[in-house]
Amino acid sequence: MKCSYPLQSSPIFGGINDQQFRTVEQLLHQQSYSAGSYLFHQGDMADRLFLITRGEVEVLEQSGDNPPVRLAVRGPGDSIGEMCLIDIQNRSASVKALEPVEVLYLSHNDLCDLYERDIQLYVLIIMNIAREISRRLRSMDTLLSNALVQKNSD
Amino acid sequence: MKCSYPLQSSPIFGGINDQQFRTVEQLLHQQSYSAGSYLFHQGDMADRLFLITRGEVEVLEQSGDNPPVRLAVRGPGDSIGEMCLIDIQNRSASVKALEPVEVLYLSHNDLCDLYERDIQLYVLIIMNIAREISRRLRSMDTLLSNALVQKNSD
After folding, report:
1. Residues in A touching B66 (Cβ below 8 Å)
2. How many Å lie between the alpha carbon of A11 and the closest alpha carbon of chain B?
3. What global pTM score does this model have?
4. d(CA A98, CA B144)
5. Domains detected in chain B
6. pLDDT in tens, chain A (154 residues)
7. Fewer CB atoms inside 10 Å of the end CB: C or N, chain B?
8. At what angle do helices B119-153 and B18-25 cross, to 10 degrees?
9. Contacts of residue A122 in chain B, CB cutoff 8 Å?
């Protein structure tokens, strides 16, 4: 696997030593997307985490008949779709490449195999994913609270 | 430990068998709060998860000098503060008892001890906590998206 981005510094792999990282690398798969194409659409079944190694993407959410709202822009070093490794559900948002994008992905099944092979390493990755989701929930809490305050003061 | 609420049906203990549940029960501590008192304040150091067994609480977040905003109301069977078992940080919101409230709590240290004693049970609990955080993030995403759409259409 060739990857110019220092993958080991991704939050998902925090606290993982070199030997453990070689095990993780065997689980990762590479994929490329052209500008304007979608990594996935809201509502798709979700079974893999994406790690962006090149380019930027936008996270779009559509509610009912309203136009899609941009929730975030993510770039190299960011991960997308952590939640599906915890709990397989439909994608809660769409993700679109803003330019040529390269990713590595880790599938739910590969992570389940890791539970059998190396449970300590499995726990490290799950805890890192949970921390990432937790950080996003905190920032969402703040954004929502600000939006509610602004709405009440309008 | 006496508890009228069927604790084993809490999402945090999903998939845990009777024998494992007896191990978990030894880690839980009971506490009571009078109406109007705070379980904790925004900004406090957070080191425990609360499981509400009686009464309702409100989750309040304050941003800057704005008045506190009610983010949610939680009652028996609900858990509060899962995030601190994943990542010790300051409390992102305050929680206030709306009536006499009883809780059970699980501390970060007790959960760390469980990693050494029974790593499979530890994984089950961590995965359940992560799923709960993930569910909350999904519902926050939708609330925020609706708030942004409404703001754009005002």
Report:
1. 149
2. 13
3. 0.78
4. 23
5. 17-153 (2.60.120.10)
6. 445 556 777 888 888 998 999 999 999 999 999 999 999 999 999 999 999 999 999 999 988 888 899 989 999 988 898 888 888 788 889 999 999 999 999 999 999 999 999 999 999 999 998 888 888 887 877 777 677 666 666 6
7. C
8. 80
9. 123
| Tokens read off for B9 | 């049906």
Q: For residues B19 and B17, what is the distance between their CA atoms, to the nearest angstrom?
A: 6
Structure tokens at A65: 């008949």
Task: Quote ipTM for the complex.
Answer: 0.74
Token pair for B37:
């008192």
